[in-house]
Amino acid sequence: MKKRMISMLLAVCLILSMTVMATACSNSKASNSSASTTKSFTDSAGRTVELPSDIARIVPSGSLAQMALFALAPDKFVGITSDWTDLNKQYINTQYLDLPVLGQFYGQNNLNLEQIAKVDPQVIIDIGDAKKTIVADMDAIQTQVGIPAIHIDGTLSTMPQAYRTLGDLLGMTKEGEALAKYCEGVNSDTQAVMDKVGETGKLKVVYCMGDNGLNVIAKGSIHAEVVDKVSDNVAVLDSVSSKGTGDTVSMEQLMLWDPDVIIFAPGSVYSTVASDPAWQQLTAIKNGKYYEVPNGPYNWMGFPPSVNRYMGEIWMTQLLYPDQAKYKVYDKAKEYYKLFYHCDLTQDQYNALVANSLAKTAK
Fold first, then answer.
1. Minimal CB count within 10 Å: which of 6, 130, 303, 361?
2. Are the C-beta atoms of residues 331 and 289 closer than 8 Å to each other?
3. Which helix or strand (DSSP H or E) is residue 161 part of?
4. What's the pTM value of the predicted model, to 2 decimals?
5. What letters, b where the CB count within 10 A reaches 16 and e where it falls short, cover 104-119?
6. Taking the mean position of all CA atoms in its chain, how far away is CA 52?
7. Distance from C-alpha of 310 to C-alpha of 327, rounded to nearest angstrom
8. Above 80 in pLDDT, residue 152?
9. Distance set, CA 247 to CA 213, 233, 241, 269, 302 (Å)
10. Phi then psi for 288, rounded to 5 degrees?
11. pLDDT digit string (tens) for 85-133?
12. What's 260's DSSP letter?
């Protein structure tokens, strides 16, 4: 009997011991779990921000960020900066068309604080060329909406690293790497074409926009990044606007520049210059060397100047230097649209996009 009681006491002690150990272990795990729910992240502006470890709900700060992020993580969006246009809707999957409109910090500066609070994002992400006030700007967004906000540098040359950073941040390293490699590939291919062309082989180009075509994207502007890279952008001005609407010049100034090729923005005067006596004085117009930028779901050259410009690099190098580029632009466009817009680009859609944009032999 005595032995039996001792055995029972030992069993009870063992159970109590195991219970204590399990509780301690459970508390330890809970503590570790709690500690790992956030992480410190240093953005491209040098700001250290505390972010959730597992990010499932994001919003972009503006249209540039929206375009870049949509390629990587459309299913993490809980809102967009502005309503999709009818043009956008032709290429964007219907599942994303009813996302709440939240406004944007830059440009219109119309953030809807009530809507942002309602969709409860875990982070606001800004992507693009850093303004001089970027630190103060990001701090202001964060204070204004009470949600962590970060900036990721995203120019043509830095976008590969941006996608790798975003891939790590959002738990999408494989997808981020695929986009990074694509951007690196386009940059590399473009540089290879331009190495063949050489400085002396670059064509003189002006990019015109506006109701009368007399707004130009001047050399050195962020909006001229593609034009500057693949041509001799002769629109050289003492003061360069940072706005997407460009700088206003006179017809006399265009005549002095007299470019080999003129690129017209969508909605400008492309369709009327052939019958306009003033425009007919320009060599490019007389020689039929003028084209309209493809537009859908976004302008291939910018406006906004985001990842759409990789398609602009492909298009412009083929347009200006077909003997060196030798691209099958439809194949390139299909690849791009699938990767960045999650869209299966049809032949009819492509034909409409480049109807006024390529020499007939290159289409």
1. 361
2. no
3. helix 159-169
4. 0.88
5. bbbbeeebbeeebeee
6. 23
7. 14
8. yes
9. 11, 14, 6, 16, 15
10. 70, 25
11. 999 999 999 999 999 999 998 767 788 988 998 999 999 999 998 989 9
12. S
DSSP string, 191-235: HHHHHHH-GGGPPEEEEEESTTS-EE--TTSGGGHHHHHHSEE--
Positive or negative torsion for Cα 327, 330, 335, 336: positive
> Cα separation of 224 and 129, whole Å?
13
Rg over alpha carbons for the chain, rounded to the nearest Å, is: 27
Q: Where are the domains of the chain?
A: 40-172, 192-362
- Is it the case that residue 22 has pLDDT exceeding 70? no
Distance (Å, whole) CA 19 – CA 121: 40
Backbone angles phi, psi at 129, to 5 degrees: -80, 125
Structure tokens at 83: 């309503």
> Domain 192-362's class?
alpha beta
Topology adopted by domain 40-172: Rossmann fold (3.40.50)
Measuring CA to CA, which residue among 361, 204, 200 is closest to residue 282?
Answer: 204
Nearest alpha carbon to residue 206 among 108, 306, 279: 279
In terms of Cα–Cα distance, which of 237, 233, 291 is closest to 262? 291
Give the type of residue at 334: K
Give the rounded distance of the alpha carbon of 76 from its chain centre. 16
Q: How far apart are CA 60 and CA 77, in angstroms?
A: 8
The residue type found at 74 is P
Judged by DSSP in three states, 292 sits in strand
- Residue 169 pairs in a beta bridge with none
Q: For residues 294 and 312, what is the distance between their CA atoms, to the nearest angstrom? A: 9
Give per-residue pLDDT as tens, 162-205.
999 999 999 999 999 999 999 999 999 999 999 999 999 999 99
